[in-house]
Amino acid sequence: xxxxxxxxxxxxxxxxxxxxxxxxxxxxxxxxxxxxxxxxxxxxxxxxxxxxxxxxxxxxxxxxxxxxxxxxxxxxxxxxxxxxxxxxxxxxxxxxxxxxxxxxxxxxxxxxxxxxxxxxxxxxxxxxxxxxxxxxxxxxxxxxxxxx
Length: 148
Description:
The chain is of the alpha+beta class. It has helices spanning 4-17, 26-29, 34-42, 86-100, 115-123, and strands spanning 46-52, 55-66, 69-77, 105-111, 127-134, 137-145. Helices cover 34% and strands 35% of the residues.
């Protein structure tokens, strides 16, 4: 995806609606120039936006971190789309993309207190492999082996 204005709108909505779910804050992104948004998209190998009923409904990024391993990053589903399969579709798209690139292992980090997100990932075969603390915030590490 190269449509950074569309991505920006979703990312700002995500940081507004669920600030605790991300490692960055709304204030850090609300006034950045276009080049920074384009750079953010370039940092990931895959950037997807999901649509539902003609509206942008969610987003996800993924990056190949090493041979055979992909990291799912920055997933968010808009409140109006939750429980309607958007999160499932985004995860499945990342898993397909990973498999197409030889990725047999997909990892992600999720805030330890975000049980609904962790449950979504578990439904797709992710298992918790540990936790870590980043700037006082506890996060779960989850992994799925066999991306395809």
